[in-house]
Protein: PD-(D/E)XK nuclease family protein
Organism: Chryseobacterium gilvum
Amino acid sequence: MKFLAKIVDELLSQNSDLSGYTIVLPGKRPIVFIRQILEEKNYSGFLPNFYTIEELIINIVDQQLIQGIALWLFAFDVYKTLPLIPNDDFAEFLKWFPTLQKDWDDILKFSENDEAVLQYMFDEERIKEWAQDLGDEEEVPRKKFLNFWRNMNIFLPFLKKKLKERNFATSGMITEAAKNKITEFAKNTSENFVFCGFNAFTPVEEKLVRNLLQWDKAQCFFQADHYYFDDERQEAGKFLRNHKLWKEFNDSRAFNWIENDFNQPKKIKIYEVSGNVTQTKILPDIFKDINNKTFTNTAVVLLDENLLPASLDVMHDIENLNITMGFPLKNLSFSNAVKQLFYLQKQLEKNKSSYYYRDIFPILEELPKTAEDEDIINHFKAQIEEKNIVYISKNLVTELLHDLSYFNLLHKTESGFHFLDALTAYCQKIKWLELDDIQYENVSHFENAFKIIKNQITPYAFDVQIETLEILINQHINSESIDFQGEPLRGLQVMGLLETRLLNFENVIMLSVNEGKLPLGNSQNTYIPFDIRKHFDLHTFLENDSIYAYHFYRLIQDAENVHLLFNALSSGVNTGEKSRFITQIEMESSHTIEHLIVENTSEPIVTKPIEFIKTEIVMEQLQKWKSKVSASHLTSYLYNPVDFYLSKILNTSEADEIEEELSVRNYGNLVHFTLQEIYENLIGKILKNSDLENSIKRIDEYINLAIAKLKHQPEFYDKGMNFIHKAIAKKVIEAILKYDLELTKQGNTLEIIDIERRFDQVDFYLNDNKTDKISFMGFIDRIDRLNGTVRIIDYKSAKTKNLVIKLDENNKSDYFHSNDRKQAMQLCIYQYVVENLPEFWGYPVETGIWSFAEAKKGIAALQFEKGNLDDAMTSIQSLILEILNPDVPFTENIKSYGF
């Protein structure tokens, strides 16, 4: 720590006893390093006092700082006493006050008079509206802005008055109050101040430092470098150049220190990386080039805090690791679950009879749970998915989840206070579960937040709604982070850019050096326009850019090895543009820079078709399969042999998923099951006109029976696309019944023989001497007899395709090895089965498909233009032998799409 060591040497040269010094720092992190340096120098006296400059100013003013939730509640209590129009409720108030309060603090810190700025904002809006006819419409945006600043000119001065009455002050008010006390403080204090490593000051901080310098009660140590200090174009030196012009720095008091470290030899590597997380995967390769494997003088600086988990994942082999930066609480799973709980409560206010499954499932998945809870949740999800319940009734939720340990959180709460108590109790209870350290900290932070909010709200009389409570929680949590503990004096340091102040490292690795991350650019959350900020000398994004530029250059000026990584991919808000600070170094510095382009080299998981070899166990399963072969098995194999392997050999099945919109498969089932219900009542009858006419009248009744068979809730079909699907299904069913009715009206004899006819043990031989065989099994959707001809009918949702068979000696062996001919193959198997059933011997047999997509056309029959059924079965035999062939693996069908 070169800079800190230099300060300590200077102070020890002035006085061997440092107890008389008060060291003022930008942050508290350097204190531990100063102590280490003193220990290394065998310092044996009392330590100096340490302050941040904010703490020093608060001590001068002697006011109680109020911020966060406490300030928001106090401010709203004041706000509601004023006759303002509009007068927002607490939820609306919280949407604008935190941003306004930050602006107000800026005004108080940087301007001479906050009321003058507020009046200027109001006058600005009045000028914009000059000569315009606003009318009486209050919702006109321009009028809303005008009213807002009119109200703020009343509210903020009154709020300041009320805060002062209680001896409360915001950070801006403390700064304002310090203006009038600094001169007296500097004159009377007996302390000897040392200001270390500062760059930008607020006007009050500058006044404090300069007054102390004038009374010779302070000294300043800056860390500047000639590279950016001497060049007026370099924004990094903007503030330091101004400080050097202070009259307090003269021949008797030098401006310390301007060094020439940046131009010393350095190895700078710039990595253009394809991907955000991909940056972290490069870290192990960078670590290999670092000679000191304890990494004591190495820092990994994350400009995107969200990269911390991925970075830690690749650093698991590093023995000593110190994480200075915090990880945002809002990004953790328990935080997401809490957000979902509040969202659920708001939804329950709108819909008091049922739960939307997407509102409750994430909560059940993400909240910590006991083993008993896990069983209850799995049963609940299985029931909901099986019945495809999109909107779950409260009675069903109670029936299935009443034993859940946190079931009370899923109920509509009585009040915001009651919900806070329930959440606090839940956090206290789950902390006894086996949680990992990060999750435990996550829960503990929320427990503390719930208690703080409850305690802060209690003194006030206003009612807190769930929406208001949600905003409070979110505002609080968004500013919270989990702090990690480690050893700051040795090992690899992982930190954010601001944590590097005053510290120096030999090896610097910086991730996400992208425009928009460094610097942040014009992303200020403010109500005060840029030109007005400039007019009143408030900081704008330009000053913020200069501050970040200084931190960037200062960090690398003492480093020997610098690795700058940026994400070159454009996604979301990231433009894939490297930081302009990188471009500045490339174009302006004298260093030789090595450029590396790192592509995301992760290969696709599947580089070639999946293939499963037919092992002995697989062949054993295939032998079992031979006793129960269905036409659908063979069509599955044609579609994709791997699907056949997974479902028929491994006996796996796809997990049930809740359908918000009826799938093609279930649409087909709805029509199919309805037709089954209708025609089962007509089995064995020669149909009369009245049979079909009565069935048409009762279609709705039969559809409801089919819905029950699907285990769907009737309300699933009450609205939206599902209502339309149901209406289309009814039209299809009606078209089929009317087609049959037309046949009977024309004098045809139509008899329903069977519906969903099950068949099994229908043998089919695979060799000429009949020593090897398979047995067909399955269901035929409908068998009827039309004018003496037995018809085998298969229902399909899709349109019919390739039902005209053209078999000859050249194609017979592999005719049905094509997925395009699977419909015809299935009909051939059904015809073979029926012709082998004794009850149908002697009858002419016809097979066909009745497509729901073309219901009015009736049955599309299987036709043999060339060849016959025996030839077709020879081709099917060839397909079955291929499946049973141990030398032919199950190989995935790769679908190709032409454009």
